[in-house]
Amino acid sequence: MTEPGTVRPGGRTARVRAAVLEAAGDALAERGFPHLDLADVARRAGVGKTTVYRRWGTTTALVADLLADMAEQSLPRTETGSLLDDLRANAQLVRRTLADPRQGALFKAVIAAATCDERAAEALHRFYAIRVDEWAPCVEQAVARGELPEGTDPGEVIRAVSAPLYYRLLAGGQPLDEAAAERAAGAAAAAARAGAYAR
């Protein structure tokens, strides 16, 4: 048996799913996870309440499906042939996402949900695992080119790029500007070259 919100059929069902997930994202960005309500999401999406309750059942299942969709829709990695330029592209993508008024608020709401709900936390971990796996080949290629030491952990390098940007979003109170992204990429690249992420 599949969990609610995990089936991905096409046609009308796909359109309903897309509308509901967009409405859920809007509601989360506006009001946060504690105020997420399936009936409100159904109204925003223009679908029946019973459709939403039957398909997702709980707000946590809805958030989990929203995160799965966000991971699927995220842009693919950029490959430039240079570790620093690849990490810069990753940092700027993260920065643009988090600096966007809707997306930044949405990520804050989802992260807040993950601190108090185990299923939301699992969904958030899956989201980030997918994104790290998408960008890890940039680091693997840098190792193969001799830019980085053998045994460098690709996931750690990619996480090191986005960590300072998430800190700014959640706790820093400082702008998420292009300079912050450049510093994050440069610091991660320098640390990786120095062997900080070698296993």
UniProtKB/TrEMBL annotation:
<dbReference type="Pfam" id="PF16859">
    <property type="entry name" value="TetR_C_11"/>
</dbReference>
<feature type="domain" description="HTH tetR-type">
    <location>
        <begin position="14"/>
        <end position="74"/>
    </location>
</feature>
<feature type="DNA-binding region" description="H-T-H motif">
    <location>
        <begin position="37"/>
        <end position="56"/>
    </location>
</feature>
<dbReference type="InterPro" id="IPR009057">
    <property type="entry name" value="Homeodomain-like_sf"/>
</dbReference>
<keyword id="KW-0805">Transcription regulation</keyword>
<keyword id="KW-0238">DNA-binding</keyword>
<dbReference type="InterPro" id="IPR050109">
    <property type="entry name" value="HTH-type_TetR-like_transc_reg"/>
</dbReference>
<keyword id="KW-0804">Transcription</keyword>
<dbReference type="Pfam" id="PF00440">
    <property type="entry name" value="TetR_N"/>
</dbReference>
<protein>
    <submittedName>
        <fullName>TetR/AcrR family transcriptional regulator</fullName>
    </submittedName>
</protein>
<dbReference type="InterPro" id="IPR001647">
    <property type="entry name" value="HTH_TetR"/>
</dbReference>
<dbReference type="InterPro" id="IPR036271">
    <property type="entry name" value="Tet_transcr_reg_TetR-rel_C_sf"/>
</dbReference>
<dbReference type="InterPro" id="IPR011075">
    <property type="entry name" value="TetR_C"/>
</dbReference>
